[in-house]
């Protein structure tokens, strides 16, 4: 039942009078309003503060505590009011939800207290209206992260019975857990520093020999530097191998960034060992030594700030990309303009557009080396415009990057913006599920056989044909659906009668058609008296199929209430035997669509595959069932079409 | 000729004003605010006694109806979009836009594009508490889209298609076409006595009064509200 428009139900029902003259079938009986009391004020006493509202207002949302009969548990006989021992401030927003249909989240309230109130009163948080939903989600996420952080801090207590491998991994990841780990941590850090310093010092010219020019230290003390390098690389190799051994998932470890950095740091040394003989390739090999500088990135294991910087850059990738893109655009434009402006002047350094790129970049970043300057007046004008626009273009994304960094730095592992999209999608999916729950409620209640009992002309559908168990169930179900809901269902039932089709669950609609339409289309003639008469219709196919009487069909439908599948049987040989066993299989291939022509129960989608048409299921264009729950198990023997009504 | 020149001059002046504003850097939001008129409409319904005399509802029933109405439409009138949205909530599985539009036109007697509370309540009293003849008159009015006093096959086709649209995906589009045509054929067979291709109000009322089913189904909503 659509919440919040209970007031419009009389209009919608009145408008249904418009269907009556076109309908060819009799309409079901309307549910009567048994308790015809006038709308009354009810008093809700929440911890002493009294709220008053109409009973109708609360009835708008029958699946919450206040809207259903659950509130009777809180009824106080002496004072004739409903007493709730809850926070009155939070109750205000909850009651406003009933009044206006929108749930707002007050910003000054604690998020967990609010969640508890919502849970108590049976309201799902996804209904929070858009104006407050972002705030709610943000606060909730913060709260969860804070709780998780607290949890992590308690994680350091040593668990007994950890294997050697697990101990080692923990030692690597959290160095302060044991002294050995701390020692190892500092030793590796020291060696990283040593390695970087030697790389740097290698190139310093140290001490000139009287007969030669300054040579770098690396060439003077080759053996010493080589020994240093070897020592560092050995330590790094041993460390890498130990980490690889200890990692819980070696494949995942090998794919991680830190391990790639480790590999890149030690690989040049080994390649150098292999390649010292070959003189030609040594030139290329020299460039490999550049990669030794990547050892400095190994420091990121030791420094939190470095990790956060890397994370920031990763999460600001879109801003950085925008910066790069806009700069590129501007560079190309201005380089072209400067080139053509300076083309006339003699001895111009702007020899080509790519040569002008350098000028543009230097000017836009306000470096201004001065090695290339425009000489013509037009060139100078455009040059000044270029530098002004450079300032603007660069200044735009930088604050964003800075704020990102500070946010991440303070929160230390905040979910990035991409997760917001997923949450939105998940939220919409949840709302859709809860909405479709209500829109499928009509199909639901049909399965329970409630509507059939309201038939005008065929009284023998009534409960006497169903076994006793389902009788009580039916009565119970009748009580729990509210009056509004039953009126709404009655409206939908009238629509079905008018159009002579039945509502079915949307999901199975797609499955049914592709298989069936191929076979049975030419013979469509919607028979109109589907539910009135077993006989008396003029559909030829029906007589061929030797249909069963209608009453038995509905009996059987009544019998199968407790299962979560809607069975529509029309015209088959042995339905009653196979159906029970095949129920458990829950196969949802809906077979062919020839019930439309037979029109026994419904002239709608679902029908029974007759045995000769079994091969249709094997047809290549039959789609796989999209429903993930149902096992794809075709049951050739069954002639029952199952529609999952959930 | 002079009008063209005047227009040119006006545009030139606007252009120079625009450039001046650009150079001096004034915010141009003031301009737009003046042009916007307030579009909120305040509408009060007639008083309770008047409505009571015009309709078959009791005082409490009118109070109930108005409270619900005012809650959802605080401005006092329903425009077509709101009506469509509300109606769509009742038929979540289908597409109710077309039928809601027909309904709106049928309710909106004075054709001013919005429904006031009186219009709704008067029609409601006819539909829920009126005689069958009044109800049939209303139904005829609904079907007669162009209000020319006759229902043609095209109008009926439109109406029936919109009703079938309410069922949504439960009816496959391919079958829907055929089903609607069949339904229209049958309807005309039944109602069009002189077989002239259109149904007039008298034919309609006559045929409906003869049909037991229709007579009975017109009464089922009598206890709503």
UniProtKB/TrEMBL annotation, chain B:
The keyword Ribosomal protein does not apply. The keyword Lipoprotein applies. Gene3D superfamilies: EF-hand. It holds the Pfam family EF-hand_5. GO terms for cellular component: peroxisome; voltage-gated potassium channel complex. It comes from the Eukaryota. It is found in: Cell membrane; Cytoplasm; Peroxisome. Keywords: Calcium, Cell membrane, Cytoplasm, Ion channel, Ion transport, Lipoprotein, Membrane, Metal-binding, Myristate, Peroxisome, Phosphoprotein, Potassium, Potassium channel, Potassium transport, Repeat, Transport, Voltage-gated channel. Its main location: membrane. One of its GO terms (biological process) is regulation of potassium ion transmembrane transport. May be involved in the calcium-dependent regulation of rhodopsin phosphorylation. Binds three calcium ions. This is Kv channel-interacting protein 4.
